[in-house]
Amino acid sequence: MSDIVSFDGFAAKRLVESFNQIFGLGDWRERFFVRTPGRTEVAGNHTDHQGGTVIAASVDRFVRGVCAANEKPLIRVYSEGFGDVEIRCDELSAREEEKNTTISLVRGMAAQFAEKGFVPRGFDLYVNSEVLGGSGLSSSAAFEVELGQAMNVLWAKGIVSPEELAIMGKTTERMWFGKPCGLMDQSAVALGGIQHMSFAVPDEIDATSIDFDFADAGYAICLTATGDSHADLTDEYAAIPAEMNQVAQALGAEHLGQLSEDALMAQLPSLRATCGDRPLMRAIHFFREERMVSYRAEALKNDDIETFLKATRLSGASSAMYLQNVSVSRLPDQPAMLALAVSGELLGTAGASRIHGGGFGGTIQAFVPVERVESYMEGMDSVFGKGACQVYQVDHVGSHAWRL
Question: By residue range, what is the domain housing residue 303?
Answer without folding.
Answer: 219-392
